[in-house]
Structure formats: structure tokens, C-alpha cells
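Researcher: Please predict.
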Amino acid sequence: MKSKLLKLTFLSILTLSLMSFMIQQDWYQFQSEKFGYKVLFPTEPIKDSKIIETDIGQLETDYTMLTDSNLEADNLVYMVVKTKYPKKELNSNDKKIVMNFFEKAINAAINKSNGELLSEKVITYGDYPGREIKIASQNGITNTKMRIYLIENTSYIVETTYKKEKEFNASSMKFMDSFELLEE
């Protein structure tokens, strides 16, 4: 009798555990013709556009962002930033310009976060160049993972910020892997 009760309890716990893995959170699909991409967020993000002054003139920057104040969340920030540059200043077909662009973009990200570069690897989006970097910031408490793509004269930065111990979380990968450019 005790053995049957134990087996029944075990099967109940196993069934409930398996069911909990099957329950999937519905993510919000952000899609914008103006921004030129679609991407999945855990919930609806904020979106905005800003004009920034640079040494090459005014640049329009579009971004979507979701922050989570729950310190136990997989990620504290999910963000995509799109910046269009003048064609005469930036073109993904010119290897020298591309190398210089990525070097400056990575250094700017490190300086902005007052962080330290942990890793960098060459990636692509289709035939276009990109970089994936990881930066430690806040004295090593948080890390930011960024994928930077250069599509002709437009950059796209897809990033998540998370507590160091949440480095390999599925939510970050789902977000990053869901990024897709819309066809013009």
C-alpha cells in the first residue's frame, strides 16, 4: 500500500513537472515598417526615435526597449537600436570603413557602460557584417550581450543586459535569435 502511494505521488509530481515545461509564455512580436525589423519581447516594449548630433551631422536613431525591475528576471534590459548613417560616411561594402565602424561602436559601448570587453566574435546577418560582444559592467555585477549588424549604411544593435549569474538564459537567446529585418 505504501509502495502504491509512493508511486502515485511520484507520477503526480512528474506529470505536473512535465506540464510546467509545456506552458509557454506568449511573447510580444514588435514589428515596424518605419524601424525596418521585427523581434520578440517578453511583453510590449516602449519605442521611440531621437535625433542625435554627431561629428558627421544629425542621425536619426530608432529604438525599442523593455526593462524589468525584477532582479530575479532573466534579463534586466532588452533593446534594439537602429541608426541610419549618411551613405557617404558608412557603407557595409567598404571593408576598411566597416572595421573602423565596429571598432568605434564597440569602444563606445564599453565607455558608455564604464565596462570591460569580455568577448568579441565576428558574425553576419545574411551577407552583411556583424559583431557579437559581451561587456561586463557595474563592477562585474551585470553583463551586456550585443549583436551589432551593419546593413549597408544602417546599424542595428540587438542587446540584453542581465545579472552575471544569468548569462546563459533562454530568454536572451530567444530575443536575440528572433531579430529579423523586414523586406523593403
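Model: The chain has one domain: 26-181.
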